[in-house]
Design goal:
The chain is of the alpha/beta class. The protein has helices at about 30-45, 65-75, 90-95, 95-105, 120-125, 130-145, 165-175, 195-200, 210-220, 250-260; strands at about 1-5, 5-10, 25-30, 50-55, 80-85, 110-115, 150-155, 180-185, 230, 240-245.
Length: about 270
Amino acid sequence: CLIAQITIGCSHNKCTFCSMYKDKKFSIRPLEEVLEDFALARQSYKRVEKIFLADGDALVLPNDYLVTVLQYIKKHFPECKRVAVYATAANILNKSMAELQELQQLGLGIAYLGLESGSERILEVVKKKISTADMVVACKRLREAGIQSSVTMISGLGGKALWQEHALESAKIVSEMNPDYLGLLTLMVAKGTEIYEQIHNREIELLNPLEVAQETKLFLENLSVTNCVFRSNHASNYLVLKGTLPADQQKLVRQIDQAIHQKNGFRNELLRGL
């Protein structure tokens, strides 16, 4: 996968748990520079089947900019099967259906959305600055435009106080979104983030691996999606889970049950990573 940097950083960059873009001021790279990068990539790589437009939320860009980039890809990388971007609900809702469909026709195949939690209370605490209602509408608009959606949640984000709310509200909202792909990460706390200080000050208490498993089980038991590829196999996850929902839903719940009762199969804390 070729990663092409067309924005620098994240236009929001206020989430309490995220350390990824803290040292970057959001900016849009000049189009000429981006096209030069693509020209160099074409010289360097014989075959590029997937392209990711980075950084944090490239869909924030005006459509004429994105159209120019996608047209260049279509012309110079004819073998490319799919272009992907990170997106926020606001990015998607700020574009008309005609604009989204134009991007899809030019090769934009999938957008990655960070829901993080279906709980409005948790989203407010972590300063995500989205509403779950907007996330649902955004996901439906992508589907209508023919663009696949990949939604990410963060296990343990509500801490011990709100783990049940996190599981149940997330199951409710993800069911309404009905994404094509669903990925679970597990909260990892990086120094320098606001949530690190909150945990240090005992304002939030982290879940242990067994409690994360119980939260995931409760989430899956209450989830209702159709033909959704589910993955919980990121380096941050304590327990590796993967399947297609709803076909593998009960199997995944049994797998979690077994791990809880036998207290094994969990990734060692030292082996977890972002």
